[in-house]
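Standup notes
- DV: blocked on the single-chain target, sequence here:
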Amino acid sequence: MDEFTEKIKYLKCRRFFPDYCGIKYNSYTMQQLAGINWRGKPTKLNPRQKQKVIEGLEKFIEDLKKIQNE
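- DV (later): unblocked, structure below
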């Protein structure tokens, strides 16, 4: 598991990925997060997916700030 995946494992990815990142959460996404595919080969999120996760986190933080200010 790479360092990036290690950090995002604390999120509930099943809901976070589709709602905030626009990433379809399926069995392959789960394999990417685990760092190994069904054949036992290493796998990880690609750079585009990582960028979408970062953008999703920024959007999530903005939503939390809005809720706090209400």
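- Follow-up: The mean pLDDT is 89.
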